[in-house]
Amino acid sequence: MLTTLVAFLGACTLIAASPGPSTVLIIKQSLRSRRAGFMTVLGNETGIFLWGLAAACGLTALVAASQLAYDIMRVVGAVVLLAFGAQTLWNARKKKTGADEEDAPVKAQSSWAAYRSGLLLNLANPKAAVFAMSFLPQFVPSGAPQLPFMIGLAALWAVYEVGYYGLYVWFVGRMKAVLSRAAVRRRLEQVSGGVLVLLGVRLAVEG
Q1: Res. 10: pLDDT tops 80
Q2: Which residue of 21, 66, 80, 103 is most buried, as measured by CB atoms within 10 A?
């Protein structure tokens, strides 16, 4: 059991370390505030747990088996990414109004809005569904009850990533003295918005 858990957490670390839309969104939200960043993490990990729960119940197999279901989720996911990216680029453009706003405070965002953004982005990603289905069963010991074990692994996966992505939020907060400058925030938002748009385009055109 210990060996299985160590291997599982190692795999979770590799998954979390792989750059993707969720990582970009968490960093983007953390530029607003630590609260926004952390609530985005919680939303993202709620999505992870829900996909893990669906995988345990066999529901994600439907997405993998049905090309139509996968394509629908792929298009929805692309639209969500493009919307987040376009909104970020638009906000960065609005901030480019002159040096007199160099130290203007970041507009506050509600905790629910930050949580919802993380949850929506994760649930709209068909790859998350397919990945949960293929990832979790590998760590169920032979002879163990699959449903409760996979639900437990999904919960552990989500909790572990809360801690992992929490380090991102903490690091951005530690860099607040630099990142609080409007010009730096604007550049970072331009980069994160551009990355989200590119990820959305890639998801839209891939088969």
Answers
A1: yes
A2: 21
pLDDT tens-digit profile of 148-194?
Answer: 888 999 999 999 999 999 999 999 888 876 666 666 667 777 777 78
Residue 9 has φ and ψ, to the nearest 5°, of -65, -35
Q: Whole-model pTM?
A: 0.76
CB 37 within 8 A of CB 84: no
Amino acid at 25: L
Confidence check: pLDDT of 48 > 90: yes
Q: Quick one: DSSP state of residue 105? A: P
Cα 47 from chain centroid (whole Å): 9
Describe the chain by its helix, strand, coil percentages, rounded to 5.
85, 0, 15
Distance CA 151, CA 108 (A): 35
Our measurement of the distance from residue 200's CA atom to the centroid of its chain's CA atoms, rounded to an integer in Å, reads: 13
Joined tokens for residue 21:
């839309």
Q: Of how many residues is the chain composed?
A: 207
Which one-letter amino acid corresponds to residue 40?
Answer: T
Q: Tell me the one-letter amino acid at 58.
A: G
Alpha helix (H) ranges present in 66-205? 67-95, 111-123, 126-135, 146-174, 176-179, 182-205
